[in-house]
Amino acid sequence: MAKHFEALQRAEAERKRKAGVESPDLPPSGAEWDSSSVVPGEARRKGIRRLLPSFRKEAVDGVDDSANELNKRRITILQPESFASEQFRMLRGRIDALATQQRLCSVAVTSANPREGKSMASVNLAVVTGMSVGRRVLLIDCDLRRPKIHKTLGIEAEYGLAEVVQGDCSFEEGVQTVGSLGIDVLPVCSLPGNPSELLASAQMKETLTKACESYDHVILDTPACLGLSDTKTISELSDGILVVVRADVTRREDVDAIMEILDRRKMIGMVLNDVEPTSGQRGYY
Ligand SMILES: Nc1ncnc2c1ncn2[C@@H]1O[C@H](COP(=O)(O)OP(=O)(O)OP(=O)(O)O)[C@@H](O)[C@H]1O
Ligand SMILES: [Mg+2]
After folding, report:
1. Cα 52 to ligand 1 centre (Å)
2. Whole-model pTM?
3. Which residue segments constitute the domains of the chain, with CATH numbers given?
4. How far is the CA of 119 from the centre of ligand 2 (A)?
């Protein structure tokens, strides 16, 4: 747990100049991502890994879904050479190193509270993993309350996690292939009335079992951990848990609280989000 405290100390100590400062790593305000390479179904996208040259406007839908906010979650897509993208590649490398010692097919990404960067971290971890040749990567949006993955990746689908778990469609029908990124995604397309029950169901467990049989890496974007049973349920089904801490925002006691809720043996690390690196090269992840 030394790393845990180290990250917390850094988070607490972090006093950055946020107001009015746009980091060089921030995707340009006008940048948009063309999601036309999203294809439904089972198609597997081996070898197609390019960034699309043109970008399409996203529909604005709420505070976190403006094009600018969506772009902040697409840092490794829009700026693959950035410092932030490099941090995600390093994170991937560390997870790979751990995976030589323990089973780590599925990794749940969570945080204590809303808006700390769980979806941002999930998407970017999936994207950098998808860039590695020969890896089959599935990103699952397990946030059945405030899903973000479909908007972030421009997926408009009829079926998603809720439909798969409810048996309204097959696993293969629910999975969308984002050809340009080399990853598959099981998004959330409709919000069920009973999210906690769906996540705790035997069908959800079967879905994750199937995911790990079909993919080398399964990344699970989850809701905030405090106040909901959803994340605990998902984390019990996953091999590892990655906790996102947002610098200057996440309170230490909240991180301590989720450490009590989640299975510490599954904790594989902590992502300190929204910091300015001390190395002299500025970034924001
Ligand atoms: N490092 C960062 N720098 C700038 N903006 C960021 C950063 N990380 C996340 N954001 C922005 O903060 C908002 C919340 O991020 P995100 O949706 O990833 O959080 P979340 O923890 O998944 O939220 P929720 O609990 O609602 O699912 C988004 O608008 C995102 O673009
Ligand atoms: Mg989220």
Report:
1. 23
2. 0.83
3. 2-273 (3.40.50.300)
4. 4
